[in-house]
């Protein structure tokens, strides 16, 4: 598969202050390798603090990594200065979690969606492009939305405006960071289907970030599971869901509510223990304090990500 965006052994260590003199290093992302293929959706799943947003920002070169390489359409952009990234800024877009915070309430929908066209000095019929984008996200008829303000609309509709804004420059890659987690449950599926449709019709590649295995399995081609700054498993979505290999992935899948009402109140294993602190990760396998299968070697050696079956990678000493 043609790779659109690729992270090669990328790390992002933040130095943050703890106390007056001491500073600590937070290994938010530690040696991550992944790619998003052409017209593919890769879901990145993990608990809060596992480093998902940091990976999204790195893939958009909103951060410069402390190690590794970022490749976009075969071009190494790891340290490319901002003024030489204009081509990339057009092709790679973001959709964020909170449509309130990413949308200025004093701008009309037209101004919001048009802004990237102005920033990138796109000539021609800008209103036409804006209307086309609004129609693509089902804000129809588009001209009725142009002069409205986002706060007049529901969370789901505001997120549609955010997606329309991400579309006007005809990107080939969109990183969507928990795009539906702030939206009421009834509109969530619609927004996810919309993203899926855009991916299929326009051949856009998506990085879909979520802590929710249930939406990941429905809306992605492959799933990467992240735990404390590392990818612990990556495979095709069906493979991961039907045959999870890593104990952490197994626990995430066990935590997904059963759609069968008869089983809804069944005892379920959840991921035991608190998510650990990336400023002070455990030695060896970072999951070992929470793992039901922990062995002696797990406390000493950090397992590498290995291909166990074709296209199915896991980092665990059980395999
Ligand atoms: N700019 C920063 N400075 C210091 N630490 C940071 C910075 N950005 C992120 N971190 C830390 O890096 C770790 C990973 O953060 P990140 O936001 O990527 O996680 P996440 O998986 O997106 O979590 P969530 O599900 O809560 O959004 C966290 O411990 C976070 O506190
Ligand atoms: S390496 Fe060991 S501790 Fe880590 S997930 Fe596998 S069995 Fe559990
Ligand atoms: Mg996040």
Automatic annotation (TrEMBL):
This is ABC transporter ATP-binding protein. CDD domains: ABC_NikE_OppD_transporters. Residues 7-253 form the ABC transporter domain. InterPro entries: AAA+_ATPase, ABC_transp_ATP-bind, ABC_transporter-like_ATP-bd, Oligopep_ABC_C, P-loop_NTPase. Pfam families: ABC_tran, oligo_HPY. GO terms for biological process: peptide transport; transmembrane transport. The keyword Nuclease does not apply. GO terms for molecular function: ATP binding; ATP hydrolysis activity. The keyword Oxidoreductase does not apply. It comes from Caldiarchaeum subterraneum. It comes from the Archaea. Keywords: ATP-binding, Nucleotide-binding, Transport.
């Amino acid at each position: 598969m043609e790779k659109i965006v690729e992270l090669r052994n990328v790390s992002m260590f933040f130095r943050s202050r703890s106390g007056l003199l001491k500073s600590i290093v937070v290994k938010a992302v530690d040696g991550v390798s992944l790619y998003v293929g052409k017209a593919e959706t890769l879901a990145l799943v993990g608990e809060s603090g596992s480093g998902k947003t940091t990976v999204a920002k790195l893939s958009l070169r909103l951060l410069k990594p402390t190690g590794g390489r970022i490749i976009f359409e075969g071009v190494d952009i790891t340290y490319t200065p901002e003024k030489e990234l204009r081509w990339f800024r057009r092709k790679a877009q973001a959709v964020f979690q909170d449509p309130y915070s990413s949308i200025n309430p004093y701008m009309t929908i037209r101004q919001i969606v048009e802004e990237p066209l102005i920033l990138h000095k796109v000539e021609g019929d800008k209103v036409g492009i804006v209307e086309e984008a609004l129609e693509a996200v089902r804000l129809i008829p588009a001209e009725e939305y142009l002069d409205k303000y986002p706060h007049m609309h529901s969370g789901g509709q505001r997120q549609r405006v955010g997606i329309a804004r991400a579309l006007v420059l005809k990107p080939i890659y969109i990183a969507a960071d928990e795009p539906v987690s702030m939206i009421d449950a009834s509109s969530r599926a619609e927004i996810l289907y919309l993203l899926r449709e855009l991916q299929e019709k326009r051949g856009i590649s998506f990085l879909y970030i979520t802590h929710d295995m249930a939406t990941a399995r429905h809306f992605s081609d492959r799933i990467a599971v992240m735990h404390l700054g590392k990818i612990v498993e990556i495979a095709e979505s069906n493979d991961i869901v039907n045959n999870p290999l890593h104990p952490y992935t197994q626990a995430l899948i066990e935590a997904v509510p059963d759609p069968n009402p008869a089983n809804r109140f069944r005892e379920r294993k959840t991921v035991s223990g608190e998510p650990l602190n990336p400023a002070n990760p455990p030695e060896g396998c970072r999951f070992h304090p929470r793992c039901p299968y922990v062995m002696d070697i797990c406390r000493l050696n950090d397992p590498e990500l290995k291909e166990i079956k074709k296209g199915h990678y896991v980092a665990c000493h059980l395999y």
